[in-house]
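TICKET: design request
STATUS: open
ATTACHED STRUCTURE:
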C-alpha cells in the first residue's frame, strides 16, 4: 500500500520520498524503474480500481434476464429533429 494509501510517517515512505527527491523523478517512475511495479499503466489501473471499487471487483453473477424474457417490439418509427453526426458537416 506504499503507492496507493501510504503512511507518510513510515520509514519506507520517507525513504522513497528522499530517493525521488535525489533522483528528480516521481514515485511511480522510480518504482517502475526498480521493477517494483510492472508498468505505469498497471499502477494507474490498480489505483482506479482501489478508488472506485473499494470493496473489490468480485461482483455476483448477473442472470441472463434479457434472454429469459421476450420483450415486445413497439410499432413506432423513431424521430429526431437533430441531424446525425454523419450529415452535420455537409
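STATUS: resolved
RESOLUTION: sequence designed for all positions
ATTACHED SEQUENCE:
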Amino acid at each position: 500500500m506504499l503507492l496507493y494509501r501510504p503512511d507518510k510517517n513510515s520509514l519506507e515512505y520517507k525513504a522513497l520520498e528522499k530517493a525521488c527527491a535525489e533522483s528528480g523523478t516521481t514515485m511511480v517512475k522510480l518504482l517502475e524503474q526498480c521493477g517494483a511495479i510492472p508498468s505505469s499503466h498497471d499502477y494507474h489501473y490498480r489505483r482506479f480500481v482501489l478508488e472506485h471499487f473499494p470493496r473489490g471487483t468480485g461482483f455476483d453473477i448477473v442472470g441472463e434476464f434479457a434472454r429469459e424474457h421476450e420483450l415486445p417490439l413497439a410499432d413506432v418509427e423513431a424521430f429526431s429533429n437533430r441531424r446525425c453526426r454523419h450529415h452535420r458537416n455537409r
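CLOSING REMARK: The chain has a mean pLDDT of 82. The longest helix spans residues 11-23.
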